[in-house]
Amino acid sequence: MIKVTYDGKVYKINKKMKVIEFVRDVLKNNDKKIIACKAFNEVKSLNYLIDRDCEIKLLDTHTSDGSKIYVRGITFVLIKAFEELYPGKRFYVNYALGHALYCEAEFKLTEKDIEAISKRMKKIIKQDLPIEKRTLTLAEAMNMYNDAGKMDKRGLLENRMKTHVSMYYCDGTFNYFYGVMPISTSYTQDYELEKYGKGGLLLHYPRRFDCKIAKKVDGSKKLYATFEEYDKIHKVLGIENIVGLNKYIKEGRAGEVIRICEALHEKKIAEIADMIAKDKKKKLILIAGPSSSGKTTFAQRLGVQLAVNGIKTVTLSMDNYFVDRTRTPKDENGKYDFECLEAVDLELFNSQLKDLLAGKEVELPTFDFTTGTRVYLGNKAKLGKNEVLVVEGIHGLNETLTNKIPRENKFKIYISALTTLNIDDCNRVTTSDTRLIRRLVRDSKFRAHGSEATIRMWESVRRGEEKYIFPYQDDADVMFNSSTVYEIAALKPYVEPMLAAVDYNSDEFSEAKRLYEFLSYFIPIDSKEIPINSIIREFIGDGCFYR
Fold first, then answer.
1. Regarding beta strands 478-481 and 410-416, do their DSSP bridges make them parallel or antiparallel, or are they unpaired?
2. Which of 214, 391, 408, 483 has the fewest Cβ atoms within 10 Å of its own Cβ atom?
3. Are 390 and 383 in contact (CB under 8 A)?
4. CA distances in angstroms from 254 to 157, 457, 527, listed in the order given
5. CA–CA separation, 103 vs 425, rounded Å?
């Protein structure tokens, strides 16, 4: 007799069975939104065999892990459909635009091509084809990829210190995917394809929180242009994926990559400063972006470039404009919600902005986080003729934050680590993973937060970004990509020991293990060649702005 604990209740089963059998036969649940499970704090397929006493958590597409698995599954279906229609042609999953993936082929896709691909996808989904995980020796996998002409995947395996490789099979199609997959194609019924960009397509998938497909891609044109700019440079370098980056590192040329990435950042920041300097009406600079985007360093470097243009900066901290703690709204869990717009005293903030922009002197508030009240300590500010106000905060792109200031006086900057580096043709390095790795390192070095605490908090951070930042991306005057193609290789020596130390019994173990496995694809590099003004220094330390 095997005891299975689910949702606080103990079920006794008299034989070994797969989780999917337990769900259907014992729980009598046929909901296809249940897409995977957690057992022993690890994410498992629904084909996971229950062969001993355990606690099972079911993952649906509303969960973070479940949503990732769904996207992985529908991407596999898309790739399978493409390969069946266009055998021998390469297909690339490039990057995310909102709740969609931008993909390209080695030829320009037409409306007719996309219609044919979608039709084949529907057929594959309707057939309910099993997606099976199989294990091969490293030599078998490399030979298989070599025969299929998938050199991106073959090159990826060359640097892995493993003797065996797991990959997924589905009705004659095989592919490596980083992470757990759905057990069959029928679990991926909701999607839409759309022609987009220069001969590419968008694969729209359901939003995690409401499982609806949003056809509008927030800030899509600006995001697309930003991604494309960096993608072109990486292609010139020959670093379209981890294989290309590892090649540079093995050849002792990591410093060359670092210098090019940092030069690109300097060039873009100088261009943004020039844009601000040309428009004399732009007196309020608003900087917003998701967590660990490097906003603080960016603001400092922008100030340097503005100074080159003869412009000084006066910085206002949004934290000092919180309403008193007694007026702070609470979230659904009864905790203070400092991220919502209502936590800011908009009346006072806008009043002081107007006075400053009019050349008046104002006494700036200071928020005392111990007492939860605002105090005045004699800190005064006045905006001179060749000075601009710089405000950094999550609501910077939201017009409601600065509703008393005319739009013509504002210059809005969206910043994020928009990662263009891929693992291989089909597996992306997500922007979210890049930022989480940055935050893990920073929280450990500067905030005394352990890995488990940072991972545990990440879910709440992501929810806030979805609600308060991403919907306003399109209102930015300019987007700045703070990512560098080399950074994960540089962050690896810092974060790998932290992830390895996460306890097996912790709820955060599965995420720590996933990130640890992900890092295994990168050859580490020494951070000593990273310039002291680099955005990456915000996370690893020894930067010139933090001494």
1. parallel
2. 408
3. no
4. 20, 33, 10
5. 10
Instruction: Give the CA dihedral 368, 374, 378, 381, nearest 10 degrees.
Output: 110
Distances (CA, A) of 140 to 157, 295, 407, 418, 488: 11, 46, 61, 35, 29
Lookup result for tokens 């991926």: 188
Residue type for position 93 = V
Pair of tokens at residue 44: 């498992």
Longest dimension (CA), the chain: 81
Q: What are the structure tokens assigned to 114, written together?
A: 């996309």
pLDDT value for 97: 87
* Model pLDDT, residue 198: 85
Q: State the CB neighbour count (10 A cutoff) for residue 386.
A: 13
Q: What is the pLDDT of residue 208?
A: 84
Q: The tokens of 138 are what?
A: 């490293």
Helical spans, DSSP H, in 451-500: 451-468, 487-500
Domain 65-204 top-level CATH class: alpha beta
Q: What are phi and psi of 104, to 5 degrees?
A: -140, 160
- Name the amino acid, one letter, at 281: K
Instruction: Give per-residue pLDDT as tens, 359-378.
Output: 999 999 999 988 999 999 99
Cβ-count burial of 333 within 10 angstroms (0-12 exposed, 13-18 middle, 19+ buried)?
Answer: exposed
**The Cα angle at residue 423 between residues 420 and 426, in degrees rounded to 5:** 90
Low-confidence ranges of the chain (pLDDT < 50): 218-219
How is residue 323 written in tokens?
Answer: 């309403």
3-state class (DSSP) for residue 275: helix
Taking CA atoms, 368 is separated from 58, 330, 363, 371, 394, in Å, by 43, 19, 16, 6, 20
What distance in Å separates the CA atoms of residue 188 and residue 199, rounded to the nearest whole number? 25
Q: What ranges do the domains of the chain cover?
A: 2-60, 65-204, 220-311+386-540
**Residue 216: what pLDDT?**
61
Element (H, E) at 54: strand 54-60
**Count of C-beta atoms within a 10 Å radius of residue 461:** 18
- The DSSP symbol for 22 reads I
User: How far is 137 from 166, CA to CA, in rounded Å?
Assistant: 9
Whole-number pLDDT of residue 219: 47
Q: What are phi and psi of 164, to 5 degrees?
A: -130, 155
d(CA 512, CA 501): 9
Q: Tell me the pLDDT of the chain averaged across its residues.
A: 91
- At residue 440, the 3 state secondary structure works out as helix
- Which tokens hold the place of 188? 């991926």
| DSSP collapsed to 3 states, 325-393 | HHHCCECCCCCECCCCHHHECHHHHHHHHHHHHCCCCEEEEEEECCCCEEEEEEEEECCCCCEEEEEEC
pLDDT computed for residue 331 by the predictor: 82
SS (H, E, C) 212-279: CCCCCCCCHHHHHHHHHHHHHHHHHHCCCEHHHHHHHHHCCCHHHHHHHHHHHHHHHHHHHHHHHHHC
374 contacts 299 by C-beta, under 8 angstroms:
no
Q: Which class does domain 2-60 fall in?
A: alpha beta
pLDDT at residue 73 in the model? 96
Burial of 387 (0-12, 13-18, 19+ CB in 10 A): middle
